[in-house]
Fold this protein.
Amino acid sequence: MTPTEIIEELRALGDPTKLAVLERFGIRTTTAFGISTPELKTFAKELRKIVADRHFTAQQLWETGIYEARALAFLIDDPKRVTPDQMEAWVADLDNWATVDGVCSNLFCRTPYAYSKAIEWAERETEFEKRAGFSLMAYLAVHDKKAPDEKLAAFLPIIEKHAYDGRNFVRKAVNWALRQIGKRSVFLNKLAIAAAEDIRLQDSVSARWIASDASRELASPVVQERLKKKAARSTLRE
């Protein structure tokens, strides 16, 4: 199936009445057909089986600028073939939080460049590029099961540094990264709670919200009990 044929299939699947859902969730993008996430994932699963060169096709789909085509692009692309140049080109194109999180979760966090790009993008000024940095941090905490705690702990000073940013899509991603790192292990939980307290001292509206929200979850009985059980299982395996 060629990229042109894929776009035509997307157009046929589209339902304009679903576009209101995107708007309701704050997903504002130039062109969209109105296709649900489950439908896109099902279509992507089929494409992975029949497309000869998934990496090339992903590039072509991304270039269309269509919301659903870009979703297919990050769902079918091969992370082993993704280059830093591609990551830079795609992150510069980001225009909504859902595509940011989708490409970070399904593709970018599975590349060898994820850690360096997370740090680099977190320092950017553009809202969605900056969100991509913290989104990557959150997804690495979830998906990179083999990463040592120290590797994820290196993100905490950056999270503290940017907690002042009150832009909605940035502050939520900063908070999200802090919480995901803090739920990784007992060691990281203590560091993340300490980081939240340091953030609280910044005394900006954004910092106070991040500190309060993250501390509440990370110190909760549910999270503490889960981490204790996880630590106990790890000890038994050793």
Q: What stands out?
A: The chain has a mean pLDDT of 95.
